[in-house]
Amino acid sequence: MLLSRSPQAGLQVVELTATTVVLIFVAIFAYRGYKRDVRKELLFFGGLVFGTLLSLVDSKPLVPHVNRFYRMFLFAIKGGLMSDNPLPVWEAVKQRPPLVNVEDPKNLLWFNTVVFVVLGLLSYWLGNRLWRGSPPDILAMATARLQGKKKSRKSLNQITSALLTQLTSTVIGGLSGFLVAMFFIPRYLASTQTLVVIPGTAAWDVLTQNLRYAIVVMCLVFIVRGWQQAKRR
Amino acid sequence: MVPIEIVFFIVIAIFGLVGLVRGFLRELGVTLPLIVLLWAYSALGDAFLNLVEKVMVRAVHYAPGTTTGDLVRCSFYVVSLVFVTFIAYQGETLAFGGSNPPGVQGWLLALLIGLVNGYLIAGTVWFYMARYNYPFQMLGWVQLPLSPLAESIANYALPPSVLGPLLPFLVFFLIILRILR
To answer: Which of A130, B56, B72, B117 is most open to solvent, judged by the fewest CB atoms within 10 Å of its CB?
Structure first.
């Protein structure tokens, strides 16, 4: 990774190699994996594997179903279900272009991305719904053991077992990150070099303009926090 | 005479202390009507005042001059705000149910919401005074020109201009919270 500042007008060049980008993805997801239960991570990983397999064929098996549902949806919202004579509505709907056009690469790319992201989010959310528990705090367990606290003292086997479980979770998280990188990098950063230009002054202007929204959102977060903490009568 | 921005900050601090004493949930019950009122001001305030003025012209053939008109318009906003604030603080109906968050966290949250309420109240009064060119200066309550800090606050940091486009969402959000609790 190269980070340099040019002498002219404060232009900043940040160069990231593809390996660095992949490692960033892996590191972020590995950290998430470490913080989450191993079962949740496995489910998430499964969702991403399924998404990756579908992306190998550009999610084409799903396209006819999606287009059919889209037409059905259009038919319903245009009043076809309530109409005495639904034929004209259906004819009008048939004239509309399909939602996903397999001939158009851009169209197929966004469809593929949506399928991948939806599968990932769904498996992540499902894991959170199915298993509420969070992994044990290994550091606290180890500290309690070193301090010799009787109440919270765990056996060495328990600590080792927890450590191995979390290590597995971390590795699975890292693999998930690799799959995400494998999906996005060849599709969205396909060129040999991608230049991202962020004008510094404009960025500062944007930040100051949006500061008020940030403050409002922060207040709302505190309100919701307090609202959650307040006990019901 | 004390600068207006100092009065503004003092009022906010006083409301913060009031919030600390009253607790988080009761203060949140004040925030809701204040936000609803701000929304009503932004959506209906001018239309309502125009209607009243038209009715006055037709019924009693009286149209207030610029200075008097500004004083009347500003008074409408300030008096209605004070009225709603009084009802919100006096009544219990809009207070959120349950018991306050425990410990220091509860205190800090109560202080925060108290400060927010103070900002909404003092800021709205200031905003409408600035909008109508400080009509109370003829009563000797405000002395112009304002300091650069006060100018900046009046131009950029008062609730109706800060929250303007967000008000409908905030109203919806707080009503949902109130219904759920």
So the answer is: A130
